C-alpha cells in the first residue's frame, strides 16, 4: 500500500500558482506545522486492537494546568468544558453541560451533567464551574480575555449555573468551549504549581509519569461519564525536533506523528508503511505589525512591507505548494466574516522600494519575533523584507516566553501570533488580538469601535456585515502582514485508524486505535 495524502475537496481551487520557486539569499526548509487534517476511519470490524499506542508530537508540553494553554491534546484527553466546538459548523456538543438556554439578551442558564466524577473521585458540581471561571479571571490565565464581558457566574444549585454577561454576547458558547473545569477542592489543596504536574479532570484519560517537555502516559479513566476510549493506554511523547519526530515514526518507535514539518509531504510521501495526511484546516500564520512605534507608525511603510511579501514563493518553498494564500483579511475562507470582496495587494517589489524611499525608511531596522519552531518562516519573510530595503533581525523565543509576549505584549516590530480556529470558525478570534492585549500593537479608537460593534450584535446576518466592515478597515490600514495559511501535516502507521488531525494544535486521543 502506498502512503496516502488526503487533500480536501476543492483544494485545487485554493492552491495558488507559484511565481518564484526560490527566495533570494536564503535556503529554505520547512519547519512549519500549525494544524492538521482528519485521518483514518474506525478499525476494521471485529479486528483485534492493541491495548497501547504511542503518539508523538512536535509541540512541547511543560504543564498540565488546563488554564495555561488553549486547544491542547492534554485538555481534550484529561479535562472537559461545558460544551465542545471542534469544527465550528455543527451545533455545540454537550459535555459537562447537557443543555443551555439564553433566557434573555444577557442571561444564560446551563444545566450540568449529573453523576460525573473527577479523577480523584470527587463529584463534579456547579461550584467547580464557577471556581474555574473565576480562577481564570483572578489569576489572569490565558482564557481571561474570553471572559471580560462576563458579569457573574452563579451556582444556582448543584447542577445549574447561571451566567450573566455585561452586554449581549453572540459567542458565549464558543467561549465556554475553551474554559476547562477543575475540581475546586483539589486545586486549592494542591496549589496551581502542584496541579500543573498532574491532571485532575473529568476527561476520558487520567495522567501518569508526566515529565515536562518529554511526555506522559494517558490511562483510560474507568468512571468516565462518556464512551470508553478506543485504546486504554496512550504513551505520549514530545519531540523538540520535527525531523526526529518523523524519524521516530519511520523507525516504528511511535504509531502516530502529530504536527510534522511541511517537508514531510515530500520526505514521507513515498513510504508504503505510512499514511500521510495534510490539508488546510483553518490555521494561519498571523503576523501583526506594531503600529505604536517607528517605522510602522507610518501606514505607507506598512504598505511597503506587504508589497514586499511574495506569498506564492513562500508557499512553494515552505509548504510544497500546499499553503493557502491570505487574501488581505484575517478571517480565512470558511470563517464567518470572510468575504470574496477583499483582496490583498499584489506582490510588487519595485513599489515597496519606492514607498520606503519616499518615506525616508530605506534601511529601517525591524525585528520579527515569534515561536522558535517557525524560525525558518521568519527568515524567509525577513529575506523578502530585506530585499525591499528593511534591515531585519530575527528573534525566535521558546513557548513560555512567547505565551507571555502574546498576553502581555512585546516591543517587536512584527509579532507572530499564529491562529487556530479549533473551537470557533469566527472572525472574532483573530480580531480579538489586534488591540486588546495588555500592550496592544494597534492603538486606534476607530478600530476599537468597529470591533466593539461586532461583539454585541446577536443577529447573525447583521453581525457578518459588521465583521466584513472591520476586515476592510484592517486591510485599508495595513495593520497585518499578509502571508499564507499553512497546511497541517500528520501521519500514522497503516495499522492505525481514527486519528483526526483536523483539530489543529490538539489531537483527540480517545478515538485512535491500532490493529494488534
Folded structure, characterized:
The protein has helices at residues 11-14, 73-78, 126-138, 172-176, 184-190, 192-195, 242-250, 264-267, 299-307, 311-319, 349-358, 375-388, 399-408, 428-431, 445-456, 460-477; strands spanning 5-6, 52-57, 83-84, 93-94, 97-102, 107-112, 150-157, 160-165, 205-211, 215-220, 233-238, 256-258, 274-279, 287-289, 324-325, 365-371, 391-397, 414-416, 480-481, 484-485, 488-493, 496-497, 513-514. Helix 9 runs antiparallel to helix 11 and helix 15 (445-456) packs antiparallel against helix 16 (460-477). The chain folds into three domains: 19-29 and 284-485, Dipeptide-binding Protein, Domain 3 (Dipeptide-binding Protein, domain 3), CATH 3.10.105.10; 31-79 and 203-281 and 487-516, Periplasmic binding protein-like II (D-Maltodextrin-Binding Protein, domain 2), CATH 3.40.190.10; 80-193, Dipeptide-binding Protein, domain 1, CATH 3.90.76. Helices cover 27% and strands 20% of the residues. The two termini are 18 Å apart. It contains 16 helices and 23 strands. It is of the alpha+beta class and 516 residues long. The protein is globular and about 70 Å long.
The CATH class designation of the largest domain is Alpha Beta
Give the distance, in angstroms, between the N- and C-terminal Cα atoms: 18 Å
CATH H level of the largest domain: which superfamily?
A: Dipeptide-binding Protein, Domain 3
What Rg do the Cα atoms give? Answer: 23 Å
Poorly predicted residue ranges: 1-44
Amino acid at each position: 500500500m502506498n502512503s496516502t495524502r488526503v487533500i480536501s475537496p476543492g483544494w485545487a481551487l485554493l492552491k495558488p500558482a507559484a511565481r518564484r520557486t526560490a527566495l533570494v539569499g536564503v535556503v529554505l526548509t520547512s519547519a512549519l506545522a500549525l494544524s492538521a487534517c482528519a485521518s483514518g476511519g474506525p478499525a476494521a470490524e471485529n479486528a483485534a486492537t492493541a491495548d497501547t499506542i504511542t503518539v508523538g508530537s512536535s509541540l512541547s508540553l511543560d504543564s498540565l494546568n488546563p488554564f495555561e494553554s488553549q486547544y491542547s491534546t492534554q485538555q481534550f484527553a484529561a479535562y472537559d468544558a461545558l460544551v465542545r466546538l471542534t469544527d465550528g459548523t455543527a451545533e455545540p456538543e454537550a459535555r459537562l453541560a447537557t443543555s443551555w438556554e439564553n433566557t434573555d439578551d444577557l442571561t444564560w442558564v446551563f444545566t450540568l451533567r449529573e453523576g460525573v466524577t473527577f479523577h480523584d473521585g470527587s463529584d463534579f458540581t456547579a461550584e467547580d464551574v464557577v471556581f474555574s471561571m473565576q480562577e481564570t479571571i483572578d489569576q489572569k490565565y490565558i482564557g481571561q480575555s474570553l471572559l471580560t464581558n462576563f458579569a457573574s457566574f452563579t451556582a444556582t444549585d448543584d447542577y445549574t449555573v447561571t451566567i450573566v454577561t455585561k452586554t449581549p454576547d453572540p459567542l458565549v458558547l464558543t467561549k465556554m468551549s475553551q474554559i476547562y473545569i477543575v475540581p475546586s477542592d483539589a486545586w486549592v489543596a494542591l496549589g496551581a504549581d502542584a496541579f500543573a504536574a498532574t491532571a485532575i479532570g473529568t476527561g476520558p484519560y487520567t495522567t501518569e509519569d508526566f515529565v515536562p517537555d518529554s511526555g506522559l502516559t494517558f490511562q483510560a479513566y474507568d468512571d468516565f461519564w462518556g464512551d470508553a476510549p478506543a485504546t486504554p493506554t496512550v504513551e505520549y511523547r514530545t519531540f523538540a525536533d520535527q525531523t526526529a519526530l518523523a524519524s521516530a515514526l519511520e523507525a516504528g518507535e511511535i504509531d502516530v506523528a502529530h504536527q510534522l514539518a511541511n517537508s514531510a509531504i515530500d520526505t514521507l510521501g513515498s513510504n508504503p508503511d505510512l499514511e500521510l495526511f495534510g490539508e488546510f484546516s483553518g490555521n494561519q500564520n498571523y503576523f501583526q505589525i506594531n503600529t505604536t512605534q517607528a517605522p510602522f507608525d507610518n501606514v505607507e511603510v506598512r504598505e511597503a512591507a506587504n508589497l514586499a511579501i511574495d506569498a506564492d514563493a513562500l508557499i512553494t518553498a515552505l509548504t510544497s505548494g500546499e499553503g493557502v494564500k491570505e487574501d488581505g483579511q484575517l478571517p480565512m475562507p470558511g470563517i464567518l466574516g470572510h468575504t470574496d470582496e477583499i483582496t490583498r495587494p499584489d506582490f510588487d517589489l519595485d513599489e515597496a522600494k519606492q514607498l520606503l524611499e519616499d518615506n525616508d525608511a530605506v534601511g529601517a531596522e525591524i525585528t520579527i519575533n515569534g515561536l522558535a519552531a517557525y524560525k525558518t518562516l521568519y527568515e524567509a519573510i525577513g529575506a523578502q523584507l530585506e530585499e525591499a530595503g528593511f534591515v531585519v533581525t530575527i528573534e525566535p523565543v521558546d513557548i513560555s516566553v512567547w505565551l507571555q509576549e502574546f498576553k502581555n505584549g512585546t516591543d517587536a516590530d512584527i509579532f507572530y501570533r499564529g491562529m487556530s480556529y479549533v473551537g470557533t470558525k469566527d472572525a472574532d478570534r483573530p480580531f480579538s488580538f489586534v488591540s486588546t492585549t495588555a500592550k496592544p500593537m494597534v492603538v486606534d479608537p476607530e478600530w476599537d469601535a468597529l470591533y466593539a460593534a461586532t461583539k454585541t450584535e446577536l443577529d447573525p446576518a447583521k453581525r457578518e456585515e459588521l465583521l466584513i466592515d472591520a476586515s476592510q478597515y484592517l486591510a485599508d490600514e495595513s495593520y497585518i502582514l499578509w502571508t499564507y495559511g499553512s497546511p497541517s501535516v500528520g501521519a500514522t502507521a497503516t495499522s492505525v485508524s481514527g486519528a483526526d488531525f483536523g483539530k489543529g494544535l490538539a489531537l483527540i486521543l480517545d478515538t485512535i486505535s491500532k490493529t494488534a
